[in-house]
């Protein structure tokens, strides 16, 4: 290839890149030019077709919780003298950076009444907390940006930058100028608007809220810890109880304690009931006896009795950190039968890493790891697995009153991911998992979000 050919090829690539960058810059300028700052619009004039001022913008109403990906503006709240009135979006011809122009000289003004899903953007969203679902963090809306779309105006983004807050403190001419340096697309945002009326559940959980359900429990826990009280209550209401309980299990103990105290007793009891037994017992231990009883009395009798039993064990012992969720098997069962019952416990997969084999009197014979079950043939009997495991000696166990430090030593020596807790007669009463030992022995470092088996 000649030098001229190389030079021309390089020049062509550079020219193509320059053209592409110019197109992107032009598109960026076009988008920027079409944006309207909500902060700059508030207080601006509303003029009719003749150019006469009708009133001033007090707030912008949008259908925040509808099916649309970008919420449409449904109207404005105007100040006309001492009166506040609602102007429907159908009367709006153009929304400019500093003012609103109407379609006609005659305006139909009415009293404002919220409809399902409607929110006052300045009052309910601006300067309020929201969740950046993509960035998995809690942030605050410094400004909201509106833009024309077809025949209507929609909410397209949230500005969360510090310079925007400073802009709003400056002169009026600065306030109306969008500065979209750090803008979140509306579809990546989960907003909170406590005063808003909500639509039906199938609508409320679409778009950004549905994205919350895809977050890991540990991420949801971090978000819950950063939210204020009212926003935290709303987020819990959006999540189904099982999903919320998973997140609560990952929260710092002090934050979880505050959350349970803030929640309505019936709601708190439901959340505790959905948590894994060991995590629920830990949460209840941080409450006062009166608070514990108030929650336990609101729970089903069986679950409440199980938790009361766990609470009898001292903190810092194996019994105080164990889960009572156990999967047991008998010698005369087949591997296929055990796998079938294991599949029925899929919702508790983070609490089960082995199957305890017991005799007719429920005394422990063997502890079979899930890996050994996974590689065994369906027709293999549990008795055969017990015989094979016998060459390695008896399973590692601890008593309920065993100190956690000693339990940790036995866990390391056994090279296992959990230990069975047995009573005086050798019957398994619970299981203590490696991550529960870490959380209990390293409280100063907080929860480690240890990845449990098959999580």
TrEMBL record:
Family matches, as Gene3D superfamilies: CBS-domain, MgtE N-terminal domain-like
Keywords from the named record: CBS domain
UniProt domain CBS: residue ranges: 390-448
Species per Swiss-Prot/TrEMBL record: Streptomyces tropicalis
SUPFAM superfamilies registered for this protein in UniProt: CBS-domain pair, MgtE N-terminal domain-like
InterPro entries: CBS_dom, CBS_dom_sf, Mg_transptr_MgtE_intracell_dom, MgtE_N_sf, MgtE_transporter
Protein name: CBS domain-containing protein
Top-level taxonomic group: Bacteria
